[in-house]
Amino acid sequence: MVADLRISARERLVLTTILENYIATGEPVASQAIAKALGNKEGMGPATIRNIMASLADAGLLDQPHTSAGRIPTPLAFRFYVEQLSAPARLSQLSAERREQIEESFAGVSSSQQFLERTSHVLASISSGVGVAFASIAETHLLEHIHFSRLSVGRVLAVLVTRAGVVLDRVLVLDKDLSPVELETAARFLNENFYNWSVERIRAELGRRIEQERSECDRMMLSLHELCRKGALASDAPGQTIFIEGFANLLSTELDRERLRQMLTALEAKQRIIELLNAYVDSRQQNVRVVVGLEDTIPAMGDLVLIGASTRLGGQNFGTVAVLGPTRIQYQETMNAVAYVALLSDRILQTPQ
């Protein structure tokens, strides 16, 4: 367990230097390289560094691929490194230039779908990994307003706009014709009584009220019953919306072809990715979550790291944004970027379009 590791300040310094050197080069790190990087800090010469590296290897933090080669960090070392990073992803550590670059990338975004698609692209472009963004329909399909337009006898256009900016429109073929006044009354009732309710909850509540008041059901409720029965509050959108971009970034990893093929195949299974994010990123917390090694959930992703955060919209959970990348990722920069993008959803989408 990482939390149980007890290493000295010198060992921590050497391990951090090895990790950062390995992230930058991808090559095993020798004691001479550490001595050069540290200068004469703490009075550690090559011999002292070699002893420290041997101690770190005994602790399970370093591996030696070949007898004459340097050392490489183990997954345990990366987990330890992540825990030592300043905490978690402070926005002040994101450079003004990077922040401006991210904000410019979201110019013109006005709906949740656009935000998610742009997020996957932005996170892939600024990291060495795969950008992922998803939202569940339960979170995004909250009623902003609904409008009914009579097209002809028995035909009505229903336009439902959600709080996340999703527009759902469909033509309803009714068994009973409704006048423009009746349609306007029904829409006003829904908008005034069910603002910010999920469409599933609205359907359930209307069904309950109609059943409860069947003996004295007024004309307006009968109109609503007909509209809902024909699909005014139905959603034929998929249960969850997910965008994934940046598969090509993984082609430069040091994995053999078969391992890489298995990884890419696993990443193409979008439902598995959603399950992965749900398993590791807590929607109740806004901290960035970093998970090194995902083999417990998806064996083919054992060589990947997950850096993810939940997003908010109007104070409610909206979804998850994340990067799936190699263990040699720039952790602090990626954590900062994910944290910043996670905050943008509320700013960009809080005013319905």
TrEMBL record:
**What highest taxon heads this organism's lineage?**
Bacteria
Which keywords annotate this record? Repressor, Stress response, Transcription, Transcription regulation
User: Where does the Heat-inducible transcription repressor HrcA C-terminal domain start and stop, copy by copy?
Assistant: 114-335
Residue ranges annotated for the Winged helix-turn-helix transcription repressor HrcA DNA-binding domain, each copy included: 8-79
Q: Name one GO biological process term.
A: negative regulation of DNA-templated transcription
Task: Kindly give the InterPro entries that the UniProt entry links to this protein.
Answer: GAF-like_dom_sf, HrcA, HrcA_C, WH-like_DNA-bd_sf, WH_DNA-bd_sf, WHTH_HrcA_DNA-bd, WHTH_transcript_rep_HrcA_IDD
A GO MF term: DNA binding
Asked if Metal-binding is a keyword of the record, the answer is: no
User: Which family is this sequence assigned to?
Assistant: Belongs to the HrcA family.
- Function field: Negative regulator of class I heat shock genes (grpE-dnaK-dnaJ and groELS operons). Prevents heat-shock induction of these operons.
Name of the protein in question: Heat-inducible transcription repressor HrcA
What species is this protein from? Acidipila rosea
